[in-house]
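User: Is it possible to get a 3D structure for a protein together with its bound compound? The compound here is adenosine-5'-triphosphate. I've pasted both below.
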Amino acid sequence: MAKKNNNKPNHTKTKFKMPSFKLSSQQKLIFGSFLAILGIMLFVAFISFLFTGDADQSTITQLTNRNVKTQNWLSKAGVWLSNFFIERGFGVASFIFAGLFFLSGIYVLMNLSKAKLRKHWFWGILIVIWLSTLFGFFSNTFDLLGGTIGFEVNSYLQDYLGKTGTILLLLFGLITYLAIRFKVTFESIAALFKSAKSDFKEEFSKSNEDTIVPVDNNLSDEAEAFKTAFDLSTEKEAAKETTTISSTPEPKVDSTPLEVNPPVKSVEKSDLEMTVEVEEESIEMEVEEVPEELSETDNLSNKLVADFGQFDPTLELSQFKFPPLDLLKKYDSEGITINQEELEENKNRIVDTLKNYNIGIASIKATIGPTVTLYEIVPDAGIRISKIKNLEDDIALSLSALGIRIIAPIPGKGTIGIEVPNKNSTIVSMRSVIASKKFQSSDMQLPIALGKTISNETFVVDLAKMPHLLMAGATGQGKSVGLNAVLTSLLYKKHPAEVKFILVDPKKVELTLFNKIERHYLAKLPDSEDAIITDNTKVINTLNSLCIEMDNRYELLKNAMCRNIAEYNVKFKDRKLNPNDGHQYLPYIVLVVDEFADLIMTAGKEVETPIARLAQLARAIGIHLIIATQRPSVNVITGIIKANFPARIAFRVTSKIDSRTILDGSGADQLIGRGDMLYTQGNDLIRVQCAFVDTPEVEKITDYIGSQKAYPEAYMLPEFVGEESGTSLDIDIADRDKLFKEAAIVIVTAQQGSASLLQRKLKLGYNRAGRLIDQLEAAGIVGPFEGSKARQVLITDLTALDNHLENEI
Ligand SMILES: Nc1ncnc2c1ncn2[C@@H]1O[C@H](COP(=O)(O)OP(=O)(O)OP(=O)(O)O)[C@@H](O)[C@H]1O
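Assistant: Yes, that's possible. Here is the predicted structure of the complex:
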């Protein structure tokens, strides 16, 4: 064995240089059928030549003459081919070429192993040479039997070896061929004789069969047939007979890499050339069948992708049509109209007010937005910024306008901004932002077209990057419209397979329209009837269920060695994750709570804890929260919630305190309402006019989606057993899962209390595996839940488990 290993690398090196031609399917069909037909033509021509060869003899020199008639069934081509192969070539042994060409065609057509085909050609050509030499021995002149080559080789050999020498050389060639090709050994020949003798004496006993040595799984079919005839020996007898023929290698032992039961015999330093030859063969196979350096899973997934293409999560609803733009309304007041007078007036007032306080202005520039115009001023040198900032109210008074905001300085610009509302604000329609290039061509994971900025640019953000959004604003300032804009954006961009919504609507009326798309886009608890949650107790269950979903997803990501949902889904699409191990395409889940204050007031900590947990951990696994509230007071938006919601939207609020709660600064109290909002993702405040989407528009969109083919049911969240229905520790022994014992054995044997282990070993879904873990916890077999770590196993071995379970009853 050691010898074999030593030899291998050298041969592999030389073999790697083999050129490999990759043909397309069409090319294979063409090339393969050409070879097969060429084989048939050769065969027909040769057969015909045997009968018509003499008659066509005279035509050979005149084949280019069209008028010359030939007898061969393939006419002149047949005459020429037969003359070339049989007469001038190898004689009747040339029939083997016909076979080889035909075989090559079949191999190419059926895409069989090229290594095997090379082997057939190698041995085929050797046989042709050997046969033609053998036949040439018996022919005196250029005879059909051996052809010119057979005759010439013979006369050459006979000049040096004489007739006897030539015959012996041919015999040696035959022995060598049999030994290498059919793994014939001296022992097997001896055994053949012995068995023949035994046969003769009718003493053949069953014991002989038992001792047949299985030589090799790697033999070719012909070799297999040959082997059965020879392999009737007993191991004992074979061992006794030590070989004296130096040319016979021991192929059983050292030539076959895939050997299952190597015989006990020691390896002899037999004919080196032969060892090399045989090893070359086996290495060829390896080179063919182990493509480059891909791992086993890559290999399999590449094959799956090649066979079936990438996994397409949208396949089940492949006919799904995204809502068309026409469903959204166009507004007359759209498009900014510059009122030059208003601009001039405002500019003068700003300049005058500042002059009253001795603040000179070097330059002023206006940027007109849909609802607000930004005047950027560069004050004279030496003016303190804080001085201008303090004049906010005075400027507002002089402009007699609501919603003036001073940004001093504008980050990154070196100017001071004064935002003044336009007298006639324009509506930013949902249609205009959805139709914008920025939204349409965005490659964000969860793109949301929120509206337009002060410089009239479409403002698109990625919810996946936020990763959670807090929305606040006094009543009637545009929160519900904002939420609808968020949901509409996602409906226009994401397939039902890619995103699911959990809608919590304590106001009971705001989100009801989305009921129509329940089986497309909504997720709900298994036992609940309505997908849109209006009952506060159900919210608690849903949030806890979402936490279970989060844990399950983390487990999946961990097993798949992915850092986030995007990587995981790419891997799943590439078929690198096996659905039998519980893997599945994971849609994003967006939880929308329309009135968070109401929830906190009624459920308090029970809601806050899971929300905070989700907000802290859920970003990587594709669960995103959007929470809206009318009352951005500190007891609603607590520190822990604020800390985990870096992205915030503030519509107009009534007090500076509220503004500070939501934005950590003032500003929201100076907005003008009706969708005027400030957006922050941790640092800068961006003033945006929220896109307006009316209820009839949302209705049209949900109708359009709802009328299409849907999934059989809404996306099911994991079951959560709430407090009121008993904790998991109260599980009755009689209610245990049928697989409880098996699960206990798996967990105790592996000493690892994880649901995913049960999923894998017992081939279960998440829910059932999760329930089993709960039951195991109730039975005292595993410890309590420990976050992302596996639970502790409290039973050390199977005997202890048996005792434990017996004592229970
Ligand atoms: N982006 C917008 N563009 C133009 N008008 C808007 C916009 N957003 C809201 N409005 C106007 O403000 C009204 C109230 O908006 P909305 O219902 O969203 O308020 P809300 O903050 O959800 O109030 P509540 O908290 O009472 O539900 C809308 O009917 C609409 O007329």
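The chain has 31 helices and 15 strands. The chain has five domains: 18-181, 186-288, 340-421, 467-712, 727-808.
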